Amino acid sequence: MTMALDASISGIIITDNTQQDNPIIYCNKAFEKITGYSRKEIIGHNCRFLQAQDRNQEERAILGKSIAEGVECRVEIRNYKKNGDLFWNELYMSPVKNANGEVTHFIGVQNDVTSRKNAEHDLRQQKLVMENRIKERTKELRESEAFLSSIIETVREGLLVLDPNFNVLSANNHFLRTFKVSKEETVGRQLYDLGNHQWDIPKLRDLLVKILPTNNPVVDFEVEHDFPHIGKKLMLLNAYRVEFEGQFKDQILLAIEDITERREVEIRKDDFLSIASHELRTPLTTIKGYVQLLERAMPQDASEKFLSTFGKVSVYVERLNSLISELLDVSRIQSGNMELHMAQFDFDNMIAEAVDGMRTTVPGHQIILNGQTGAKVLADESHIAQVVSNLLSNAIKYAPDSEKIEVNIANVSDYVKVSVKDFGLGMSAEDRKKVFERFYRGVEIQKKFPGMGIGLYICDQIIKRHNGTLWVESEIGKGSIFSFTLPKAGKETNG
Amino acid sequence: MDKKKIMICDDDEGIIDVLEMILDEVGHTVISVNDSLKVQAAIDKEQPDLLILDLWMPRLSGQEVLKHLRKHSAHQQLKVIVISASRDGEQVASDAGANQFIAKPFDLNNILESVNALLN
């Protein structure tokens, strides 16, 4: 029997519970091995000696109760080896009763479960670390969501998110405020059913329906509608398929911008500039008239200086007049109100007149006109003549030390092509890129020739509106060639 | 050139002055009206050979003056030169039935050429 108990790898002890303080009366080899104590150091002691100073463990109460009531129990308790090392003791205690049913002994079976406990502990630690990480990540997500939603709620643009059936998934504050609607009457309803069906516009339906299948956004779609509470509004709509981490979602973001006021301001600005330019031109007309009257009354013996001064007044009157026109043009181009009066005209004639006009204004320059097209062109003649005159006056202005300007005209396919070549300052690659931008002035140019930087912008816009192209080739110190092409048959599309 | 009677209708005294001077210089008789509301009566009274008419005038625009002249007046055939500083003036003038349009600021030679062309 003892040999069998000694062969067990579990530590086994027997206590005598008939004696005071329940001393250990038996321990096997394995118990000695687990605890590091020898038999003589064990026998006669109460089991608690294994707990050393670690006396406040909850498991003690379970053990106490088990002994008092004479029932079996199982605990995992921190015990300490002789050398002081902690080990986790998985302890089974089972009472032994005599014929009268009185508890006489307890058998304790112990297993060192330290490595299992450590693994459990590690696992718990691991879990804790993971939980913390998830908490952090969640916090970050919440923060970025809060960040995002603060942006969404702050933008001065109504935003709706739609599902594939165009039901509103969410609407931002600006949308609700703009259209004086509540979240309840918006979210969850179909876009086309909102309000008095103001968004039920066939063209908008067509565009929105194509977004999910094609990923084609709706860009700058203008809608004018009379809204029940807020009156007539002009809206600019943009719609995109929602994209998240490179993946398209089955959601549409619809952005609605109220451009009513902006458009009104643009129109007012146009009106103002129209009136201003008209009012500026009236005294200019008078000045020009008086100058011409004086010119007619010029005495025969007037000095050269007198005559050339007179000539200069006329040049500056013309310059002031073209500045006034340019301001008006820019405003109209910006607001999309530049009107083209398309009519067929003799292209070579128009060019010849523009060149002659310039020859009269600046007799000191030699303008050579090469080629002919024989073409009848459908375009806005006065606008095209304006472009040619502008290119010519630039060629004169930016080539102060050269008196020669070459104008070449030719047929190219179903276009006419005009090139104006000067032998002046030329321009850098950077200037070439930006020269057609509104209000752009080359740094060097601005020092020598102040101006507003709108002439070439207007030219470019006029040629573009005719579906032609205006471009420049240039080299610093050698001069520039400005060329444009113009479709003879007029622009293919109206608008 | 025959001496003709030319009426000028413009709300700007400077323009009237310039036109009077040049037309007087070449020998025409010039009558000026600076209030467009009075031009119809002036035409009836003076029976001019030609009217030089501004477009953008307070109270009654040159466009309205011209439309009325072409529709209702006994002077439907009166030669009219429209002068204007508006960019769309040419279109407005031709729609309203002007014989000629000259943009402001104009060249006095253009004025004289047009006047001659219309009167002869």
From TrEMBL, chain A:
Any GO BP annotation: osmosensory signaling via phosphorelay pathway
Alphabetical keyword list: ATP-binding, Cell membrane, Kinase, Membrane, Nucleotide-binding, Phosphoprotein, Transferase, Transmembrane, Transmembrane helix, Two-component regulatory system
Molecular-function annotations in GO: ATP binding; phosphorelay response regulator activity; phosphorelay sensor kinase activity; protein kinase activator activity
Residue ranges constituting the PAC domain according to the UniProt record: 73-125
Enzyme class: transferase
Domain of life: Bacteria
Domain PAS: 1-70, 144-215
Compartment(s) where it occurs, according to its Swiss-Prot or TrEMBL record: Cell membrane; Membrane raft
Name assigned to this protein: histidine kinase
InterPro entries: BphY/WalK/GraS-like, HATPase_C_sf, HATPase_dom, His_kinase_dom, HisK_dim/P_dom, HisK_dim/P_sf, PAC, PAS
Residue intervals of the Histidine kinase domain: 275-490
Naturally occurring in which organism (per UniProt): Pedobacter suwonensis
Membrane topology: Multi-pass membrane protein
Enzymatic reactions: ATP + protein L-histidine = ADP + protein N-phospho-L-histidine
Lineage: Bacteria, Pseudomonadati, Bacteroidota, Sphingobacteriia, Sphingobacteriales
GO CC aspect terms: membrane raft; plasma membrane
TrEMBL record, chain B:
The keyword Ribosomal protein is annotated on this UniProt entry: no
Any single Pfam family the record assigns to this protein: Response_reg
Ribonucleoprotein as UniProt keyword: no
InterPro entries: Bact_response_regulator, CheY-like_superfamily, Sig_transdc_resp-reg_receiver
Stored PROSITE patterns: RESPONSE_REGULATORY
Annotated Response regulatory domain residues: 5-119
PANTHER family referenced in this protein's UniProt entry, alphabetically: RESPONSE REGULATORY DOMAIN-CONTAINING PROTEIN, STRESS RESPONSE REGULATOR PROTEIN 1
Protein name: Response regulator receiver domain-containing protein
